[in-house]
Every structure is written in C-alpha cells, then in structure tokens.
Write a structure and sequence with these properties.
CATH superfamily: Winged helix-like DNA-binding domain superfamily/Winged helix DNA-binding domain
Radius of gyration: 18 Å
CATH topology: Arc Repressor Mutant, subunit A
Structural class: mainly alpha
Number of strands: 3
Number of domains: 1
Shape: globular
Helix content: 55-70%
CATH class: Mainly Alpha
Largest sheet: 3 strands, antiparallel
Order of helices and strands: HHHEHHEEHH
Number of helices: 7
C-alpha cells in the first residue's frame, strides 16, 4: 500500500467503518442478533409494514428481507401475517420480545458510539458529524447512492 493511500481520508473512513461494524457485531451477538437484523427491528419498531415496504426502507432486495425476517421469526422477534386487503401482502410486526430487543438496540448503538468518539470532546464530535455529512453529500452529488435523509438537510447538532 502506498503512503498516499495509507494517509487518505477514504482509507481512514474504511478502517473506522470496519472497526465500527466489528464492534457492533460483537454487541449485537450479545443480543442474539447478526449485523443487519438490528436495522429490520428498528424499522419495524414504530409500526408493522409489508415485506416490500421493509425492503424499500432498508434499501435491500426482497429476498434479503425475506431471509432476515425468516431468521427473526425463528427467534420469536417478529410475526408474519397476511394483510387485510390482500392475502398476498405479508405484514411483518414485532412481537413483544421483538419490541424489547428493539428498545435494547438504542443502548447498544449508544455504547458503540461512545467508544467511537471517546477521544473527542463535544466540539470535535460536532465538527466530525458536520464534516462527514458534508463528505457524504459530495459523494451523493457525484452519483453515489445514499439512504440517509440527513445528507440532504442540515440536522441540528448537539454537543453529545
């Protein structure tokens, strides 16, 4: 690897993202989850939705959602039922255990977030969020696909 690549911002982001994913995976494992399943649980937390809606929201293909929901169903975290108007539309909802696990995910996310930002003070945290949003917006304008509405708008930053 060249010195320029080693010192690039993109490389630093890649390394940080890999470490974040690994740490999240460890924490999720403690809840009996695999990476990706937490996104489905959090998406379903407010209200049930169809498999198609969930796939669209998570920006994945329907077979991926089907596999994820199948695993979560086996764990007793979600239920699948035919829709009211059309029996072919499958509604997915969290069970009571699924709601409990989804609520626990906030603590997991916050723990890993704190580990990630441990060496930064409040001002640096705010600056990092702002710079990352700006960089993401640049990539989005260049044609990269994004799934975060925060990229398009400015969110009020807290010093947390």
């Amino acid at each position: 690897m060249t010195k320029a690549l080693e010192k690039s911002v993109g490389r630093a982001l890649l390394v940080t993202a890999r470490l974040h994913r690994s740490r999240m995976g460890e924490k999720l494992n403690g809840l009996g989850l695999f990476p990706g399943q937490e996104q489905a649980l959090k998406a379903l937390q407010p209200a049930p939705m169809t498999m198609g809606e969930l796939a669209s929201l998570l920006r994945v293909k329907p077979p991926t959602v089907s596999k994820t929901i199948g695993r979560l169903s086996l764990q007793g975290l979600v239920t699948r039922e035919g829709g009211n108007r059309d029996g072919r539309l499958v509604q997915v909802a969290l069970t009571e255990a699924g709601q409990k696990t989804a609520a626990e995910l906030d603590a997991v996310w916050n723990d890993v977030e704190e580990e990630l930002l441990d060496k930064l003070d409040g001002k640096e945290r705010k600056q990092l969020r702002k710079l990352l949003r700006k960089a993401a917006k640049g990539l989005s304008k260049a044609g990269a696909d994004h799934d975060d509405p925060e990229i398009d708008g400015e969110e009020a930053d807290s010093d947390a």
